[in-house]
Amino acid sequence: MVIAKVLLVEDTPSLARVYAEYLKKAAFAVETVETGAAALDALGDTVPQVVLLDLQLPDMNGMEILKHVSGQQIPTAVVVITAHASVNLAVEAMRYGAYDFVVKPFTADRLLVTVRNAVERLRLAQIVDTFTDELARSKFHGFIGSSFPMQAVYRIIDSAAASRATVFITGESGTGKEVCAEAIHRQSPRRDKPFVAINCGAIPKELMESEIFGHVKGAFTGAVAEREGAAARADGGTLFLDEICEMELGLQTKLLRFIQTGTFQKVGGTRMEKVDLRILCATNRDPLREVEENRFREDLYYRLHVIPIHLPPLREREDDVLDIARQFLIDYAAEEGKGFSHFHPAVEEVLRHYQWPGNVRQLQNVIRNVVVLHDGTEVTAAMLPPPLNQHSALQLQSPHRYAAPPEEVPAPRGLGSPDPGAQVLEPQGGHAALAEPRPIRPLWLVEKEAIEEAIAACDGNIPRAAALLGISASTIYRKRMAWEAEGRA
């Protein structure tokens, strides 16, 4: 049974025969061409699952074929094979969507593992594309991001918006819970009616009931006039109660009755009032833990927790951070009259790998800080505020900056564990000294070993190894090239 079809673009007949034999023995159907023109013709007929692409072709540079595949969005995985590797070449190939970059010579196992992984990745990508074709959105009612976790959020909002059911939104601080509530309102039949938001953690507890239900004149000291509460203002629309777990227990009881009956009394009043509204609520706490700790009524929790939506933290949203940062940069640059238009690649690496404990709100503050305090067209690492400037210094370190010392330097006494091969000194007096601790190794060597172990564990699949290490595949290629250039390979 044929596993998949492979188009082999290789102008050296002897190598083409060897590669084709490797693949045929593993049940791949192989079509071999020797020129770029023939490769483009083959891609115009039946699209193969994998293209093995040599870059040095007699009639054109193989990179033109890769650009064609990328530009035409041909559903195939391209594996670049070349004997003329360079950092810039590897980076360019990855930029145009190459699945992997294999340097000649390579073993049959390395070739087969790469092709099998490419086939599997293409299969999964096609499943995802089929499932999310209509739903894949990069922007949605105030949200920015096309990652899988956010696509799931968008789908829940779509489904829940038309209902009257209460939605309980959870997520870390700064993840956009109010944006989510507004999205539900704007997607719902109530979109033309009021959206009223109250932060239950920002209003004094003694005033919270008045904020929600209103009060009559003289209800308490300072109540010099009758006041309409949020419930009345939101009539026909949506009432959003943010940080609902901050609400005191006595008011939770009144809120429960209000949700059940749709009626309420103003503070100090005697007349029952009825409204038609939808309630959305949110918290950055674990609501079940609050119930267990008797800080939140269990019956209110189950009344509110009809449709749960959990907003993922920014660190779990893949490359959404770059899309959001670019939008903030454009908006704030226009607002402040600055010329910023893009980020330096090193800054993008920092933004991508920083953990963002404050989520989107923290990212927003960082970009505003940069725009207000600096000017230019490109945001550089030197412009980043703490703690990102410290992170960027680590990201920008290059392997060649760590020169190997002439000899290994022993660690200070007491650090690390003794090295079995370390020399034992006999000081005067005949008392044996402790063995010297394990010597400190150059950082570039530790880094190199970690990367090589990850690649070996992934059967030579550099993109997968890079993902597990939390870096980009181009970073691995760049470091390997630098090690080879310095004789450290």
UniProtKB/TrEMBL annotation:
InterPro entries: AAA+_ATPase (IPR003593), AAA_lid_NorR (IPR058031), CheY-like_superfamily (IPR011006), Homeodomain-like_sf (IPR009057), HTH_Fis (IPR002197), P-loop_NTPase (IPR027417), Sig_transdc_resp-reg_receiver (IPR001789), Sigma_54_int (IPR002078)
Sorted UniProt keywords: Activator, ATP-binding, DNA-binding, Nucleotide-binding, Phosphoprotein, Transcription, Transcription regulation, Two-component regulatory system
All residue ranges annotated as the Sigma-54 factor interaction domain in the record: 143-372
Response regulatory domain location: 5-119
Matches recorded under Gene3D superfamilies: 1.10.8.60, 3.40.50.2300, Homeodomain-like (1.10.10.60), P-loop containing nucleotide triphosphate hydrolases (3.40.50.300)
Residue ranges of the TM segments: none
Modified residues (4-aspartylphosphate): 54
PANTHER family referenced in this protein's UniProt entry, alphabetically: PTS-DEPENDENT DIHYDROXYACETONE KINASE OPERON REGULATORY PROTEIN-RELATED, TRANSCRIPTIONAL REGULATORY PROTEIN
Protein name: Sigma-54-dependent Fis family transcriptional regulator
